[in-house]
């Protein structure tokens, strides 16, 4: 298992080189290399993952967490360019996307980078570039990885890391997803509201009364519902902007401690994103998905993907379903009392998932680190 995962990291750029055309194709990129199959062929005689894992103490294992939309920042990825394969990732991204993602990531402007159609691919590529940095600095972390999870679009990066799909395939799927979600967002004035609650907070009642408020204003079929379960009493509510404004104005009535609008352009993970389902479903049908080489947990239910068909189904369902991140953290870090925790690395822009992990499981958070995409390490870069 450990050797295969390490090889997967090295294989991304090789597979990326094979994609020489732009994103005019529909479905599988031309010439995409099936990384998972290569790894399985190369390691057919290797010991099974259970036997390998059994010899590793929990404290020697690692978990990788991949951030989602909202973590993007101008300048991300710049200092990672000292790693040769990172340049290859961005070169492949330019061919798949049809525009210079590296230039946009490095120089912005921020308002362009924040657009759904741009920031989802940008976060996806920057996160995998951060894995390349981690692979150079601490190769044992990659080799001993036992689980991964990604927040929303970060789930695609987690699946690419785990060998379930090839880099260019994953990026193309993210491209189609982002374009479809951008179009759905443009159709309805909507957004997302971060809510810090408390045990007595009334999220269900708040959403119900916000929808009733919208109906009174003449808005048909208003949407207002929990879109992200972050940590105990921490939620993100998404829906029509009028509903979110109502919640901000009446936050004390529902015992909300703090509310804040997020820098996103739509009501993601609600039925407002239904127009994005079919485009994403079609591209995923064209991808040769594989069972992940390490455990990858789904946003939809927090459980591990057990079969490629589950990936195809749940990645589509995720677009209109709440992200159950709190449940995912419990699934990954649940263990008997006294058992040590694995080391956790957040790979990608921002440091949002660390504080969330702390609120879910403070003991697991004590072994948390962030792999920065803005600051370079001081040491030499090993040869590729």
TrEMBL record:
Pathway annotation from the record: Lipid metabolism; fatty acid biosynthesis
Malonyl-CoA:ACP transacylase (MAT) domain mapped to chain residues: 65-378
Top-level EC class as recorded in UniProt: transferase
Protein name per its UniProtKB record: Malonyl-CoA-acyl carrier protein transacylase, mitochondrial
Recorded GO MF terms: [acyl-carrier-protein] S-malonyltransferase activity
UniProt organism field: Hipposideros armiger
Gene3D superfamilies (UniProt xref): Malonyl-CoA ACP transacylase, ACP-binding (3.30.70.250), Malonyl-Coenzyme A Acyl Carrier Protein, domain 2 (3.40.366.10)
PANTHER family reported in the protein's UniProt record: MALONYL-COA ACP TRANSACYLASE, ACP-BINDING (PTHR47170), MALONYL-COA:ACP TRANSACYLASE (MAT) DOMAIN-CONTAINING PROTEIN (PTHR47170:SF2)
Catalytic activity, as annotated: holo-[ACP] + malonyl-CoA = malonyl-[ACP] + CoA
EC annotation from Swiss-Prot or TrEMBL: 2.3.1.39
Subcellular location per the Swiss-Prot or TrEMBL entry: Mitochondrion
Primary localization: mitochondrion
Coiled-coil region(s): none
One Gene Ontology cellular component: mitochondrion
GO biological processes: fatty acid biosynthetic process
Signal peptide: none
Assigned keywords, A-Z: Fatty acid biosynthesis, Fatty acid metabolism, Lipid biosynthesis, Lipid metabolism, Mitochondrion, Transferase, Transit peptide
Family listed: Belongs to the type II malonyltransferase family.
């Amino acid at each position: 298992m450990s050797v295969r995962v390490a090889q997967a990291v090295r294989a991304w750029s090789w597979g990326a080189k094979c994609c020489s055309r732009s994103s005019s194709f529909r479905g599988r990129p031309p010439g995409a290399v099936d990384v998972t199959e290569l790894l399985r062929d190369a390691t057919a005689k290797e010991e099974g993952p259970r036997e390998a894992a059994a010899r590793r103490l929990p404290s020697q294992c690692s978990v990788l967490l991949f951030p989602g939309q909202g973590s993007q920042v101008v300048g991300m990825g710049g200092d990672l360019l000292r790693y040769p394969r990172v340049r290859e990732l961005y070169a492949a991204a330019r061919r798949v996307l049809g525009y210079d993602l590296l230039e946009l990531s490095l120089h912005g402007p921020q308002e362009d980078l924040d657009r759904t159609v741009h920031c989802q691919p940008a976060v996806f590529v920057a996160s995998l570039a951060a894995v390349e940095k981690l692979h150079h600095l601490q190769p044992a972390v990659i080799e001993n990885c036992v689980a991964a999870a990604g927040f929303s679009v970060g789930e695609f990066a987690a699946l690419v890391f785990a060998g379930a799909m090839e880099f260019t395939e994953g990026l193309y799927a993210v491209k189609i997803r982002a374009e479809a979600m951008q179009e759905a967002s443009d159709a309805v004035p909507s957004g997302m509201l971060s809510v810090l609650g408390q045990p007595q907070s009334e999220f269900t009642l708040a959403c119900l009364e916000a929808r009733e408020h919208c109906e009174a204003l003449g808005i048909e079929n208003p949407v207002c519902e929990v879109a992200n379960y972050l940590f105990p009493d921490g939620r993100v509510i998404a829906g029509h902007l009028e509903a979110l404004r109502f919640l901000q104005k009446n936050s004390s009535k529902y015992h909300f401690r703090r509310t804040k609008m997020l820098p996103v352009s739509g009501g993601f993970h609600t039925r407002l994103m239904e127009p994005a389902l079919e485009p994403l479903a079609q591209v995923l049908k064209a991808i040769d998905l594989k069972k992940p080489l390490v455990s990858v947990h789904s946003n939809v239910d927090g459980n591990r993907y057990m079969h490629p068909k589950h990936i195809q189904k749940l990645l589509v369902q995720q677009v209109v379903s709440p992200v159950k991140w709190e449940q995912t953290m419990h699934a990954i870090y649940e263990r008997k009392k006294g058992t040590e925790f694995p080391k956790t690395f957040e790979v990608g822009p921002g440091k949002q998932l660390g504080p969330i992990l702390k609120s879910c499981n403070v003991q697991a958070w004590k072994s948390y680190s962030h792999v920065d995409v803005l600051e370079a390490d001081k040491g030499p870069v090993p040869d590729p």
